Amino acid sequence: MAKERKACPPLCRIDGPGLRSKREWRNDAREGDPYPLIRDPRTEALLRDLEHAYLGAVDLGFLGPHEGERLRERHVEDALGLAALRTPAVDERWVDMGSGAGLPGLPLAAVFGETSFTLVDAHRRRLDWVASTAARLGIGNVRVVHARLEEYGRGAGREQFDVAMARALGALPIVAELGAPLLKVGGLLMVPKGQPSDDELRRLASAGEMLGLEILDVVHNPSSPIDPVGCVVIMAKIAATSPRFPRRSGVPARSPLGDQRSAGT
Questions:
Q1: SS3 per-residue string spanning 158-184
Q2: Which one of 2, 126, 192, 200 is at 20 to 30 Å from 120 when CA atoms are compared?
Q3: What CA–CA distance (Å, rounded) separates 155 from 182?
């Protein structure tokens, strides 16, 4: 029997200035349709090929040993759920932070060929696999970058992207500090995050004030069929990020913004 799906925490339970819940960020995505624009047979065939390629990623240890049985649901469709919330547009630049084996960026790139996807990770071996898989499947709108996000956000990646996303990268304030510098003003940060607690969202709101980010919404990932709760936290970049951020490598994780101990780090 399917588990009862719990609700994502509403923003009305967060204290702080400027918080709002609105749907302007949704672009032309259709709420409730987890598979926008992938109805054609060619795209479906490409996704099947990608699913098969991910079996190799399991063998290489890039995904857990039991993930082969649920690759489509837990990884491919979970990634495409982000597009059901905010459709990648022509000529937009999206960045997948801490991409690992290319999730969620590679499935999105397979479907949205007119959007540019940059996949950033500190592990060369995984990125080499992503690059070779994309080349073999003819997914030409993918670029891989071998870098720590702290360094990339201070250098070539700063303010280059329309949308940033991260899956399993860390606590929300950490993701916010690493993602905000990469976004253009007006850009969007999308973070799949299980069921974030009220405390984590409050710390995120505090971090956002320092980074030029504003929480817009916390919504269900429409294609999270396995986990009973699958939320996506949506933030907008409303002001330029101070050159103080991101802090030097390792500091965001050791001393997350929004915590008392991070003050003055």
A1: CCCEEEEEECCCCCHHHHHHHHHHHEE
A2: 200
A3: 9
Q: Strand 183-192 relative to strand 161-166: parallel, antiparallel, unpaired? A: parallel
Whether pTM > 0.85 for this model: the answer is: yes
**Segment holding 235, helix H or strand E:** strand 231-237
What 3-state class would DSSP assign to 74? helix
Strands 116-121 and 93-97: parallel
pLDDT tens per residue across span 106-133: 999 999 999 999 999 999 999 999 999 9
Please tell me the distance from the alpha carbon of residue 36 to that of residue 64, in angstroms, as a whole number: 28
DSSP H or E stretch at residue 191: strand 183-192
Q: Classify 119 as helix, strand or coil.
A: strand
Q: Which residue has the tokens 């003003």?
A: 185
Tell me which amino acid residue 79 is: A
As given in the structure block, the two tokens for residue 26 are 């949704």
User: What does the pLDDT look like over 177-198, one tens digit per residue?
Assistant: 999 999 999 999 999 988 899 9
